[in-house]
Structure formats: structure tokens, C-alpha cells
Amino acid sequence: MLHEMKLNRAPFLMIESGEKIYELRLWDEKRQMISVGDEIVFTMADDPARKLTVEVLGLHRFDSFEDLYRSLPLSLCGYREDELVTASPSDMELYYSKESQSRYGVVAIEVRVV
Hints:
Blueprint: E1 2-7, H1 9-17, E2 22-26, H2 29-32, E3 39-44, E4 47-62, H3 65-71, H4 98-104, E5 106-113
Parallel strand pairs: 1-3
Antiparallel strand pairs: 2-5, 3-4, 4-5
């Protein structure tokens, strides 16, 4: 199955380079449709002509971003080395409310560029 998602420039480029292998999202209805082996086409938010196709290698589900941040290497989740000391699960509140996180749980979608 093929899925489509938007990404900001920085995470798009990090996935494209192979430096980021986990895309962090809510485990909402849209993400629950994703299975290992599916493909995702990421569109760069500020340059919709830029697209990147990845294969889903794994779906790592957690109750919260706090649990996810304790379990996965943040250097593979989109944080650069100099950001690791200040990385916090609350960073994800820019995108997802605490209520949404509690309602759905979260997922780290493990990907590789096709």
C-alpha cells in the first residue's frame, strides 16, 4: 500500500540522506493503516515538487513520546549531535497535543529510501 505524508525541509533531507531512519507520528487512524512493507511518499512542505519514497521497515509503537525517547536512539529520530543534550519529548508538542498523544499513542515509523 502507498501512503502520502508531508515533511518539513530538515527532516525530509535527513531521511533522504539516511541520517534519520525513524519518522515520529501519532498512532492515529491514518498511521494505523500503515504496515511493514508499505511505501510512503514524503512531500517536502515548502517545496511540493520534492518527493521522496521510502519503504516501511518497522512500526515501533509507544504509549507516549516520553517512552519513545527513552527507547530509541534520538540521533536516528531527527536530532543532530549538538541537539541531543536538549532533546525532550515535549519537543513533539509543537506538532501533537498531550491529549492527542494520550488518546492515540505514538509510533516511530522505521524507513529506508527506495
